Here is the input.
Amino acid sequence: MYDRVPRHLTAPARPPRSATESACATPLAAWLLGNRSRRWFQPRGFTVSPWPNSCLRIFKITQHPHVWEEWLKDLCEKNKWSHEDSPIIWRELLDRGGKGLLLGGYNEFLEHAQLYYGVTSSMTTELMKVIAQENLGSHIEKELEKEALKSLIDPLQVWITSASAPACYNLIPILTSGEVFGMHTEISITLFDNKQAEEHLKILETETWDLVSPLLRSVSVCTSVEEAFRQAHVVIILDDPTDREVYTLEDCLRSRVPLCRLYGYLIEKNAHDSVRVLVGGKTFVNLKAALLTRYAPSIAHNIIAVALGVEGEAKAALARKLKTTPSCIKDVIIWGNISGNSYVDLRKAKVYRYESAIWGPPHFSRPVLSLIFDSEWVNEDFVATLKQLSTTGKQFGGILAAHSIATTLKYWYHGSPPEEIVSLGVLSEGQFGIPEGIVFSMPVKFENGTWVVLTDLEDIEISEEIMTSMTSDLVQEKLVALGDLINFQPYQSENGSAEMDEKTTLPTTNDNQENQRVSDGSEGKTGEQ
Here is the structure.
């Protein structure tokens, strides 16, 4: 008889995009979920006559809203069906094979169920909406479980460019320690550089194996451009060596384009769809990140510039002044060009566990500016200290660069400390009046595997002149690099003085160190270099 032929119903459905849509998209999914292991129907919200001898089996397939339309199109083309809405239900004979018989959507299935099995629905719209949210939550949980299980089988693929750079030596032990990605995530590291550095990379590969890290699945060397970033989950861009000597700022800017264009193309072609790209170092960090977003547009949101190195230098200088430790200082904001014309904002900066007449529990903090009574030090000595560090680049070496990159990665995967402000170079979407299309350091927080710009912070407005100075330089850097502007023209302040000597020649090891400022929170007291 028809009712006893072994068969199953398959009912793929995507979680709804809205509660309104759920009325037609999810009751079937809830019904199938309730009947998955039963020989006769007793689903949630349905009444049914028992049918013990039925061999009907029901399967539910859920698809995320992002992939539903493409998945449905491919399914219908394969089976020569015509269907547009969610869900789609078809019947297959388990022991006969074939493409199956399309039943249709939810209404068609209800008619089929009532006619053949005496099943009727008493589910209300409100209940449908509740179950819709349950289905969506279950779908997301299952996807996360799959990713977690996959990470146990397939290690995280980490690629490091310019791996012969000193920062790489300091970065590898941190990555393999479990501190960054977690103690249950295995990683595979690929050291990528040019052919001339291959012998150097082989030595580094051996030393990495000698760490005997339980989380290190493999380490390898790659000098082949065609194979670069193959299935990469993380790409770390370190300072690239300059093959030829350059004498002008314009030459420095244009020399970055070919490599960034190549990297962008290879990342788009070879890397994982959700690859995360970090640009670190001390030379043209914002520009390189902006160029990568141009040449790898599909992952533009996942390309960031690391600003924690500059933030760390500022905190250390403040700690020396306050006679405390740098880790006690939080919420220093770095605005602008990470490796150039930047603005150090202390208006939100706080110090914890500070020994003074006022003392409190570990979570008690005091504003940094309320403890530094010497505004002259803030606007002159502090600025001079940061200028010396950025101009020489001596203290922004391998250890600081590696730690900044590793900490940023850790935050990206596990979230930044609650209520703490983090500085990060991201592609501007017009926040704070910053022009779109440039990478600009601004305050963010990391959560749920991504970063969010803190646009709701109070009292962080920056004067129009200072903002224009920083954005003008970054816009010009990009235009000069791409050949749309011949000469870089330093921003002119209202008094007519240039922010930077346009004739300054920059060495290849320290290409674009420009100006820095610091805000002490008082109008008209912004120090410049």
